Amino acid sequence: MSRLGLALRLAHINVVLVRHGLDEIVLATHLFRPVRFLLYLLPWHWFPRRRPPRGERIRRALEDLGPLFVKFGQILSTRRDLLPDDIAEELARLQDRVPPFPGVVARRIVEASLGAPVAERFHSFDEQPLASASIAQVHAARLPDGSEVVVKVVRPGIERVIRRDVSLLYALAALAERYWRDGRRLRPREVVAEYEKTILDELDLLREAASASQLRRNFEGSALLYIPEIHWPYTRHEVMVMERIHGIPVSDMAGLQARGVNLRVLAERGVEIFFAQVFEHNFFHADMHPGNIFVSADDPQRPHYLAVDFGIMGSLSPADQHYLAENFLAFFNRDYYRIAELHVISEWVPRGTRIDEFEAAIRSVCEPIFERPLKEISLGQLLLRLFQTARRFNMEVQPQLVLLEKTLLNIEGLGRELYPDLDLWKTAKPFLERWMKDQLGVRALLRELGAQAPRWGEILPALPAMVHDVLHQARKGRLQVEWRSGELRHLRQEIRRGNQRTVLAITGGALVVAAAVTLALDGFAPTMLGPAPLATWVTGGLGGLVLMAAWPRDFD
Q: Is 144 helix (H, G, I), strand (E, B) or coil?
């Protein structure tokens, strides 16, 4: 991006900030604080006026700045560890709605990607889009075999726009780190880098298609969630063709009630889906907002979910899974010491953290919550409060846990909207207890043995010969142990230095003794030694003293 383009874009941003009453945010930075008095000279500050809350003003400013800033605000809303609650909640309301691009352009992109006219690949293709977002838009189509599909097409020129706005965000982040008091603590450049990775990943529809296929396999045959089938022969980097689904938007409460959907079962199944993805499959849909979720009401008493848009997925390591499950169970049992201990063991907080102090901080967060009815307790909010408390103890931000927290808040909010009396704890606790039992019981041992069987099948045939070689070398006295480490190298260096010091000390002592003997014999044995000039014993004696004095020093 040229400097002129950057300057023009910055000027536009300033105009938008002023329009939404955010000029005091700019003038509050360290750079502009000396001229902050100018704020009160601006005409729009001469008369008192009522302004919306700051979170709402920021949200509206991002909406005016364009779809890429909307997307950035959405991702930033997941970083509850960095933002005040009022701003995070407003940013979570950002809607990714932008005008569609012409269907003729979408048709050309599809033809260029598939290398053939649309008429040859599809029985029909509707140029009027079904939906449009900042990254891509979706068109209805029908394959030659009659199958109904949707065709997702990446917005033309969007990568150039993304890179332009990301470069601008990096420039703003650098200024924030330099001039904003909290800039370094909040690490804005790292936040922008996380956004850049996420949004560039969303441009690759092959990646999204692979995620959808994996999620479909995980829930194959399940009565909880249905994932549309990907048609791989028609899928490319900029085009994805997927089975078309028909369902009721999960946010359409009137439609769900009109079909007689059991909302309690629907809400509880949403919770089950979340925990199954996180703990059983270790692969979860991290963008489960209402726009991406539909409901099949074919059997209203046993409804199931339909999901779309798989651009953002998350996963946890086995260690994170285990520690997270134990944390949840410790919450249920009010075992605050165990929660603090788990955070230290998992190294989410530094190892030197005092567990008793951390336990007291956790107790102060959790105890007031437990005094409320269980159905009013938000597990997502509790997890958020815990992260905020742990931040005081230098907890490092865990990106995988941030995505998890965002997904849990989405699921929990969705469940409470469907069924306000939803007791997420009652649904979650039995699931987690079963999972922990499965992980630590006999079945877990047998499963691990089964997973390791192929490796043992390779090792066992060679094991007798390896044992024989070791015993044979030991019997012949040729068994050697090789140990390489930083400590061993340091030890070798110390031994070498010690040897050098010893040699220097002996040499110095020998020179001193030689000088003394030479001086003592001078004049008594001229025939043996000849004349011993003064320089000889002075030089030898001083040299020896110098070498002996240098003995304690490091000559390496």
A: coil
Per-residue pLDDT for 197 more than 80?
A: yes
SS3 285: strand
The DSSP code sequence of 51-80 is ---HHHHHHHHHHHH-HHHHHHHHHHTT-T
Joined together, the tokens standing for residue 337 give 């010491």
Q: Identify the sign of the CA torsion 357, 358, 360, 361.
A: positive
Backbone conformation region of residue 343, classed left if phi is above 0, alpha if psi is from -120 to 50, else beta: alpha
Closest to 89 in 3D by CA, of 73, 77, 81, 79: 77
Residue 49 CB-density burial (10 A; 0-12 exposed, 13-18 middle, 19+ buried)? exposed
Point out the residues that are catalytic. Answer: 287
Residue pair 109/434 in contact by the 8 Å Cβ criterion: no
Predicted confidence (pLDDT) per residue in 23-78, tens digit: 665 565 555 556 555 555 666 556 666 778 888 888 888 888 877 788 778 777 76
At residue 415, the 3 state secondary structure works out as helix
Which candidate, 174, 181, 170, 172, places its Cα nearest to that of 30?
Answer: 181
What's the mean per-residue pLDDT of the chain? 76
**Fold of the CATH domain 98-169+181-244:** Phosphorylase Kinase; domain 1 (3.30.200)
Residue among 254, 349, 256, 346 nearest 296 (CA): 256
Kindly state the helix (H) or strand (E) to which residue 243 belongs, with its residue range: strand 239-243
Estimate to the nearest angstrom the gap between the alpha carbon of 490 and the chain centroid. Answer: 37
| Burial class of residue 171 (count of CB atoms within 10 Å of its CB; 0-12, 13-18, 19+) | middle
* Cα–Cα dist 541/517, whole Å: 11
Residue 489 is predicted with a pLDDT of 64
* C-alpha separations of 489 from 122, 486, 502 in Å: 68, 5, 20
pTM for this predicted structure: 0.68
**What token pair was written down for 76?**
């930033």
Cα distances from 131 to residues 100, 153, 184, 202, in angstroms, run 8, 11, 39, 16
Block residue for tokens 């005091």: 24
Domain boundary assignment for the chain: 3-95, 98-169+181-244, 249-455, 489-549
- Both tokens of 218, joined, read 């995980």
Q: How far apart are CA 406 and CA 489, in angstroms?
A: 48
For the beta carbon of residue 167, count every other beta carbon within 10 angstroms. 16
Beta strands in 111-166 (DSSP E): 124-125, 131-132, 136-142, 148-154
Burial of 516-529, coded b for 16+ CB within 10 Å and e otherwise, reads eebbeebeeeeeee
Q: At what angle do helices 158-179 and 67-76 cross, to 10 degrees?
A: 50
Strands 225-226 and 304-307: parallel
**Could you read off the pLDDT of 234-283 as tens digits, one per residue?**
999 999 999 999 999 988 889 999 999 999 999 888 888 888 888 888 88
245, 308 Cβ separation under 8 angstroms: yes
What is the C-alpha separation between 20 and 44, in angstroms, rounded?
11
> Cα–Cα distance between 163 and 341 in angstroms, integer?
43
Percent of the chain having pLDDT more than 90? Answer: 21
